[in-house]
DNA sequence: CACTTTCAGTTTAATACTAAACTGATAAAA
DNA sequence: TTTTATCAGTTTAGTATTAAACTGAAAGTG
């Protein structure tokens, strides 16, 4: 009885490790490929993610932006510094808070890259059927629930 | 007809983007949590991954190690430099190649951390049933096939 | 044997990212 | 009003990571 359960647990652990390995492999390759094709526009994935987030929402503070993108505010400070320097975003201070908006150049760049990047994402999961994509999404949701 | 297909494609794209967002969120949180509990042993995830890989295989070269862990050889050089300096691994040169093995301290440390880390991985996927874990693994395999 | 190619590992410059300490302004409390 | 808390954003030190150039040894070729 005990031996039975121990064996089952071992199998479960093994499955988890395999799943983790697959997942992180996929993630890392994806980031790498993404950075490669984004080189065309001299922008990185991290920078693009900020642009996309800023471009799709009304007035976000730096902290809110960090929360949405799941990074620290320190990281945000630096990314935004770079993006500001490149002329793609601007910061407007209001009391303690700085609100971020796209400049015209930032908006133009985003409009140009967004469809390409969306297609890239779609291609990444291209081997899955619609049904399987839904399945995957649900499993990922459940993990984090 | 065309409108129909276009709509379907849009839905597929949206699913892909959502899946990607979930996946990267999970990945990043996981790395962060992992680093947090590994602080107890003054080791990082990246360093532990190398130890675990070295400890589970006979004689790997730096390049092979990089391939297994899906990082560049430059990254490997640096990680191994750190691990060597900490006294956990050693490099043995043979012709052009350097082979990596664990030192006794490295082995002891790995033996101590491995079960904890395996349990951590298992817990991460703890909300999934055995069947769902298999499903997830298969979907991830299919994506990359 | 001399010349060239290949290939493991190293170095360098750049970006990304975290944790933790810090700054300075606003808000709350006394 | 003075003091204290809080809280947004910044800074700093450290690790991780890549791409690309470099080094030097080994292998292949003539």
Summarize the structure.
The structure is a homodimer of 145-residue chains. With 145 residues, chain A is mostly helical.
Q: How would you sum up this structure, described in words?
A:
2 copies of one chain form a homodimer. With 145 residues, chain A is mostly helical. Chain A has one domain (42-144): Orthogonal Bundle (Arc Repressor Mutant, subunit A), CATH 1.10.10. Chain A is built from 6 helices and 3 strands. Chain A has helices spanning 2-38, 45-55, 62-69, 73-85, 104-124, 130-144, and strands spanning 60-61, 89-94, 97-102. In chain A, strands 1-3-2 form a 3-stranded antiparallel sheet. In chain A, β2 (89-94) and β3 form a beta hairpin. Chain A starts with a helix and ends with a helix. The mean pLDDT of chain A is 90. Chain A binds chain B through residues 8-9, 11-13, 15-20, 22-30, 70-71, 118-119, 121-122, 124-125, 127-128, 130, 132-137, 139-145, and chain B through 8-9, 11-13, 15-20, 22-30, 70-71, 118-119, 121-122, 124-125, 127-128, 130, 132-137, 139-145. Chain A binds a DNA duplex (30 and 30 nucleotides) through residues 28, 32, 35, 44-47, 61-63, 71-79, 81-82, 95-98. Chains A, B: This is MarR family transcriptional regulator. Chains A, B: Keywords: DNA-binding, Transcription, Transcription regulation. Chains A, B: Residues 1-145 form the HTH marR-type domain.
Q: Mind describing the biggest β-sheet of chain A?
A: 3 strands, antiparallel
User: What value does the Rg of chain A take, in angstroms?
Assistant: 20 Å
Cα(first) to Cα(last) distance of chain A is 32 Å
Determine the CATH superfamily of chain A.
Answer: Winged helix-like DNA-binding domain superfamily/Winged helix DNA-binding domain
Arrangement of strands in the largest sheet of chain A: 1-3-2
Order of helices and strands of chain A: HHEHHEEHH
Counting DSSP E segments of at least 2 residues, the number of strands of chain A comes to 3
Assembly type: homodimer
Keywords (chains A, B): DNA-binding, Transcription, Transcription regulation
Protein name (chains A, B): MarR family transcriptional regulator
Pfam family, one (chains A, B): MarR_2
Organism (chains A, B): Domibacillus antri
């Amino acid at each position: 009885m005990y031996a039975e359960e121990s064996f089952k647990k071992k199998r479960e652990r093994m499955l988890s490790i395999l799943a983790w390995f697959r997942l992180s492999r996929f993630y890392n390759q994806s980031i790498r490929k993404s950075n490669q094709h984004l080189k065309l526009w001299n922008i990185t994935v991290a920078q693009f993610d900020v642009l996309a987030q800023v471009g799709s929402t009304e007035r976000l503070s730096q902290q809110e932006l960090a929360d949405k993108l799941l990074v620290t505010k320190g990281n945000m400070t630096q990314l935004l510094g770079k993006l500001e320097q490149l002329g793609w975003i601007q910061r407007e201070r209001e009391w303690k808070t700085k609100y971020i908006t796209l400049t015209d150049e930032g908006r133009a760049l985003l409009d140009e890259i967004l469809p390409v990047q969306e297609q890239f994402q779609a291609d990444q999961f291209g081997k899955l059927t619609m049904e399987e994509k839904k399945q995957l999404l649900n499993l990922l949701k459940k993990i984090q629930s």
